[in-house]
Design a protein that fits this description.
Elements: H1 2-17, H2 29-41, H3 52-76, E1 87-91, E2 98-101, E3 105-109, H4 110-113, H5 119-134, H6 137-159, H7 163-179, H8 183-199, H9 204-218, H10 226-229, H11 233-249
Parallel strand pairs: 1-3
Antiparallel strand pairs: 2-3
Helix pairs in contact: 1-6, 1-7, 2-11, 3-5, 5-8, 5-9, 6-7, 8-11, 9-11
This protein binds zinc ion.
Amino acid sequence: MIRSLFLSLILFFLVSCVAPGTTFEELDQTQIDEAIAIIKNTELDEPVERTRKESVVLVEDIIEKISPVTDKWCDENNIPDVRCNWKVNYLDDDMFNAFASGRNTITYTKGLMNGVASEEEVAFVIAHEIAHHLGNHVANAQRNILLGSLAGRVLGSVIDGSDDLISQTTDLGARFGSLVFSRDQEKEADYFSLLILKDSGYDLLEARNIIIRMAQKSERDDRSTFFDTHPTGPERLARFNETYKEFIKN
Ligand SMILES: [Zn+2]
């Protein structure tokens, strides 16, 4: 109970400190219901086992395919080179996860690579993390790490002065801080990701399967940690669908 109170307080503190970025239209209930139905009724292909080597080669291929699009984007928007060339790490960890950190680092896990079926699903995740770098989201998130650890320390010392608790809550704050991009940044990263994939010639509906997959996971026990930081399944899928419709119209 106290623990979850900590979490909500820390999260509230962090979220309320994030400067507003791009704003997106609110979704209506019909769009959410449609997404819920898709999540419920879609039967996805089984995940494919990939060795470390196969995973690394696949991600390199994806980056090669999307680079012409991101290079152009970087040129047109004067984005510093460092944020347009990525250091990509394979993490030997069973957690289904990927994240952007530092100035240009992207890390993806073994659990992710063995948890999806198609190249397009992986491409969505990689493009999403790239989008966090292109959008300079990490700079803001780094501020959150500091705020997060501060929030943890303050809460820890107010509720109980013991050193143990202070360091625990500080860790907790730092951990959550390090994970928190604002919801608008997440929406922006998904939107940019779709744009990148579309312009790179990827099949967007195939890529969408990863969102459906994560949403289905979240309803089971093997909840992905990706969910701690990202919009919940139906909302995310509904937004994807809206962006997709927008692309088809144009
Ligand atoms: Zn993200």
